[in-house]
Each structure stands twice: as C-alpha cells, then as structure tokens.
Fold this sequence. Notes:
Layout: E1 2-5, H1 14-26, H2 38-42, H3 46-55, H4 57-62, H5 70-79, E2 83-88, H6 95-104, E3 111-114, H7 121-126, E4 131-134, H8 137-145, E5 150-153, E6 167-170, H9 173-185
Parallel strand pairs: 1-2, 1-4, 2-3, 4-5, 5-6
The structure holds magnesium ion (MG).
Amino acid sequence: MRIGVDIDGVVADSYPAWLQELNRHYGKQITVLEDYEMHLVFDVPFDDMNNFFVENVEYLLSMPKPIQGAKESIEKLIQEGHDIVYITARRPEEEEITRDWLKKHGIPHETVLFSGFNSKVELVRQWQMQAFVEDHSVNARGIAQIGVPVFLLTTSYNKGEVLPENVARCADWPCILKGLLQLAKLGPM
Ligand SMILES: [Mg+2]
C-alpha cells in the first residue's frame, strides 16, 4: 500500500515549538493553538507571520522534535512492505533542511513532495496513494473526498472539527499504525 504522510504536526512536533517562538516574537503568552491558521490565533496579518517564518526558516524547521512513535511506526510500515511518501506544505526551497531533519532523527525517507501553498489533493491523486496521515482538517477533508482514507492525528486545532466517515481520528501513532495495518489487510480499496 502506498501511504502518504504529512510532516509538520504528524512526524515533526512543530506547532508547540513554533508557538513558543511566536510568543517570544510577538510578546504574547498563548498556551493553546485553537486554530491551524496561526496568524489568526496571534491576530496578525498572514504576510507578517509568513515573513517571520521565511526569515527564520533554518531555525524554525530544524528545531522541532519528532512526534512520539512516528519513527517506529514508519519503520514498521516499511518493514511490512508499504511505500511511504511524504507530502508537506513546506516550500520546495525547504527540501534540503527537511531531508536533513528526517536524517538527523533517523526517520526513513525516500520520496518527499513539497506542495507549498498548493493543495495536497492533486499529489495524492497523481501518486495513487491508498491512505494518508494528516493533522490539518482541511487537507483531511479534501483527500477523503477523492476516496482516500485519512488518519487524522487529533490536535488542539482540529479537535472540534466534524469529519467525513473515511477520516479516522487517532490520538497517537500506535492508533494510526494499527489502523493502517488493518486497512492493508482489507486489500485494495
Ligand atoms: Mg501538518
């Protein structure tokens, strides 16, 4: 089975780390990200926050820790013969730093696709993915809509979202791994 895997919020524990840096930068003390769109949480223009990310990209993309269980689960899936393809909304310019981070943390990776500000849905279709792991409810919905089952890691910014039936919520990677292995057993969808 070819499994698509997002990076930020799924493999890299980026948001808590970024929240801390954004609090420092904007002089705020926000403790919980209740919206995926961080500029809304901080009440600043999108471009302003985007500039902060562009100017500090090396630091911000290299500092997050991996999400617990991601590495082991991905290793297990590869062992079981599955093909892991990462799709991130990071920009293509950030490929080297992203690969360096995966390498530094020993997370197996070959194909990493960079959608930037474009939708991930087209890449999921082109690469004929059979399942996807995501944390952003908008992406999860879009991918589910083309008939690809999605495992959504529950976070502070997606916990209130109502989801279609082929999006399964998981609190952690052991749950995602179990769901993916079960799905693989059912055969081609
Ligand atoms: Mg993400």
